[in-house]
Amino acid sequence: MRWLIVFLLAFLVFQGLAEWLKRIGLGRLPGDLSFRFRGRVWHLPIASSLLLSLIAMAIGALI
Fold first, then answer.
1. Using CA of residue 50, residue 53, residue 59, residue 63, what is the dihedral sign?
2. From residue 37, how far is each of 5, 40, 41, 43, 47 by CA, in Å?
3. Helix, strand or coil for residue 50?
4. Can you tell me the distance from the alpha carbon of 60 to that of 29, in angstroms, rounded to the nearest whole number?
């Protein structure tokens, strides 16, 4: 249950930061999905999430 809450929170953060993340190149990687549903654009940054997770894991291992 905890992983579902973490996933949903990460999804909401990515939705809010989608424009800023596109400027630095995240959100446009192969594996990142973007679609329009009921007049709103939704982003599913699967590849970007994996990349950020690996970076966070590497930083955590160094600390």
1. negative
2. 23, 5, 6, 10, 21
3. helix
4. 24
**Token duo for residue 9:** 């929170």
Could you state, in order of their start, the residue ranges of all structural domains in the chain?
2-62
pTM above 0.90, yes or no: no
Quote the distance between the C-alpha of residue 16 and its chain's center: 10
pLDDT of the chain along its 63 residues, tens only?
Answer: 777 777 777 777 777 777 777 788 777 788 888 889 999 888 787 888 788 788 888 888 888
E strand segments, 1-63: 32-37, 40-45
The answer to whether 43 touches 10, Cβ cutoff 8 Å, is no
